[in-house]
Amino acid sequence: MRLFAISDLHLDYGPNLEWLERLPLHEYNDDVLILAGDLSDRLALLEAGFKAVAQRFSVVLYVPGNHDLWVTREGMRDSFEKWQAVCDAATGYGIRMDVYRHHDLAIVPLLGWYDYSFGIASDWLKGAWADYRACRWPAGYDEVSITRFFTERNPDASTPALQGAQQIITFSHFLPRIDLMPARIPERHRRVYPVLGTSTLEHQLRTLRSRMHVYGHSHVNRRVTLDGVTYVNNAFGYPSEAHFAARELLQVYGDGA
């Protein structure tokens, strides 16, 4: 079994969906795919993505990204209703959002959001970041309680599927630590750091004894080992990012990785 990873497919862009649907139908039939969020804010495109990967991989594991929970083009009451619709769509195509066990390997999806662990959101960020307009949350919810809603649903060490696992790989859409962003990032782009993730994810993956963590969201692809854990981002990204994104599946485990 080989394990591949990709995130941020953004299927709203025609060339991205075409790339996905051109993947070979029979090359990955014995393999597993981590799909680390941000397929589309449109359910129809999410389902097109789920259908495409389900036809090609033996197992597909998924967590929603922030774009997947936008509601402005779907007419839903709030982003929790959208989350449930996304979960139902994933289930309908056999896409898994629970722990997957293969012999002594466990692959663990971790839900998340951002809670300003990485800095306080400025007025500029609240005006520029689309989530503040495209997501809708029930009264009384802020970024801290939204993050808690998702992270409290994550598996812990007592989860039966994790018992006896010798190798654990975790994945999330959101970043678990801000130092995954490389030092070369210009200061003007660091203004978005408060909405990149939550340190709760870092605590959870360490508690699970993860040795590799796959993430998305930042569109800054890299592989780096910090404090004994290897972190991998393989975002497909927007067409305008083709000059620096690999725009290919990345094998992260198995023969040849």
TrEMBL record:
<feature type="domain" description="Calcineurin-like phosphoesterase">
    <location>
        <begin position="1"/>
        <end position="220"/>
    </location>
</feature>
<dbReference type="InterPro" id="IPR029052">
    <property type="entry name" value="Metallo-depent_PP-like"/>
</dbReference>
<protein>
    <submittedName>
        <fullName>Metallophosphoesterase</fullName>
    </submittedName>
</protein>
<dbReference type="Pfam" id="PF00149">
    <property type="entry name" value="Metallophos"/>
</dbReference>
<dbReference type="InterPro" id="IPR004843">
    <property type="entry name" value="Calcineurin-like_PHP"/>
</dbReference>
<dbReference type="InterPro" id="IPR052963">
    <property type="entry name" value="Pantetheine_PDE"/>
</dbReference>
